Amino acid sequence: MDNELVLVIDFGGQYNQLIARRVREHNIYCEVISYKTPVEEIKARNPKGIIFTGGPNSVYLEDAPRMPKEIFEIGVPILGICYGIQFMVYSLGGIIGKANENAAAEFGRTDCEFDLSCPVFNDLNQKSVVWMSHNDYIEKLPEGFKAAGHSEKCPFAAIADDLRKFYGVQFHPEVNHTEEGKEMLGNFLYKVCGCKGDWTMSNYAKTAIAQIREKVGSGKVLLALSGGVDSSVACALLSKAVGDQLTCVFVDHGFMRKNEGDEVEAAFKDWNVNFVRVDASDRFIGKLEGVSDPETKRKTIGEEFIRVFEEEAKKIGKVDYLVQGTIYPDVIESGLGDAAVIKSHHNVGGLPDCVDFKEIIEPLRLLFKDEVRKLGTELGLADYLVWRQPFPGPGLAIRIMGEITREKLAILQDADLIFREEIAAAGLDRSINQYFAVLTNMRSVGVMGDDRTYDYALALRGVTTTDFMTADFARIPYEVLEKVSVRVVNEVKHINRVVYDVTSKPPATIEWE
Question: How many CA atoms lie within 13 A of 483 on its CB side?
Fold first, then answer.
């Protein structure tokens, strides 16, 4: 690849890939690599800059992630974030201390003041809000460093060694809660590293197509097509790369939204691809009979998906490669490197150990949702496919709390359709990034006419987000929520109460399971 490169070195924090997402927002190509990567290998890649990520450990712990000191000798600008700044200070002779009466731990929104002569903070506000999350703190700076920012409790919220071009911030500039975080990263990338910004989705498409062609050769490819944004974009990419060597298999597992199976088939019938629809609803529903645990649901569905694809591949003839529309948030939440597992995604952590394919290809694995949409537009996909509502691979199976039954599935399909219809009618379908209904496993007392009811409560969920790694609940107007509630209670049997989820991510995830 000819693009300029920035390397993000992963020290095990949960949201480290978000840093990569922010770097790419500046049209600069970056990759996330493990802290275990040999320094010589890093040097050989000739990066324009390096970013150390956060992590959950203290630098003094025996098993804390560390790199050889040679990483600081390759002549490349480095920005340390959270644990990254502490690792930098510790490695170069400074002292890291534990929170005490003089320097307390900080969590959440924090007021900071910056030295605007530092290139990372050039042309920004002298005072702004950042997002802190640390127990340890910098007690003494290494030789050559100076303070470049401070908060009330943290005297070294930002540090700088202008001569060696080493910089560090104790807070997280990659999250939206840091008011000028995007600009700080931009200053590091352009003013410190000297990047020009030559990374675009047009370039990504060309590179991905070339790499797929080289890998696949004359082999046959099977694409797991769900009809969602990710798999549709993957289909367009593979279609351009290998043409009629591609067969798209759409497995209708029975947990689709109402009428969605027919809609997916109609959407792809005129494409120049081999399209196969498999009705496996009885099979999947049977596998989940009596299952309530969400992780078990995901893993069961993940394994059954693979088994269905294997069977279809045998009907087609020898298939060498399976393609999935896996994207970065799937990988992160399923546990990447030393990061904790939040939930296993059916197409990542839910895959069985033994898969009857030569290899699984995931051409979108390094992209976030907004990048996938941009790529889809670049590839010429229709708007209604590019902007289709995100839908998890396990479908409504993880939007039905507790055990799944056909009755519950029908109830949720009807209620979810009403919610989507009213959001679209209000013109909110583009401004709310994801919205859906959840059938809770809770029943409550109600009254209809003169009769007492004891039926399910339906939860509505809507979020706004730029990256799906963090999200805020959508401020849906009360009159829209009222219309949805009235319609659901009157038109859908066995629901007598509707609630709206007003929790952000974190602490919640977007999906309920």
Answer: 13
- Amino acid code (one letter) for 39: V
Could you confirm whether 359 is annotated as catalytic?
A: no
Both tokens of 392, joined, read 């998890």
pTM for this model (two decimals): 0.67
82 annotated active-site: yes
Please tell me the distance from the alpha carbon of residue 2 to that of residue 80, in angstroms, as a whole number.
26
What is the residue whose two structure tokens read 């990419």? Answer: 237
pLDDT tens for each residue of 437-467: 999 999 888 877 667 788 899 999 999 987 6
Among 151, 186, 184, smallest CA distance to 168 is for 184
Which residue is catalytic, options 82, 112, 118, 193?
A: 82
Over residues 127-137, mean pLDDT? 81
CB atoms within 10 A of CB 130: 28
Q: Torsion-angle region of residue 99: left (phi > 0), alpha (psi -120 to 50) or beta?
A: beta
**284 contacts 257 by C-beta, under 8 angstroms:** no
Q: Which two tokens mark 243?
A: 């043409």
What's the rounded mean pLDDT across residues 37-50?
Answer: 95
197 contacts 190 by C-beta, under 8 angstroms: yes
pLDDT, residue 106, reads 64
Exposure of 290 by Cβ count < 10 A (0-12 exposed, 13-18 middle, 19+ buried)?
exposed
With H, G, I as helix, E, B as strand and everything else as coil, classify residue 438.
strand
Closest to 299 (Cα-Cα) out of 329, 334, 325, 274: 334
172 tagged catalytic:
yes
Q: Please tell me the distance from the alpha carbon of residue 31 to that of residue 50, in angstroms, as a whole number.
A: 10
- The active-site residue out of 174, 179, 333, 378 is 174
Q: pLDDT confidence of 102, banded at 50, 70, 90? A: low
- The active-site residue out of 26, 134, 172, 346 is 172
Instruction: List, for residues 133-148, the tens digit of each pLDDT value.
Output: 767 778 899 999 999 9
- Mean pLDDT computed over every residue of the chain: 87
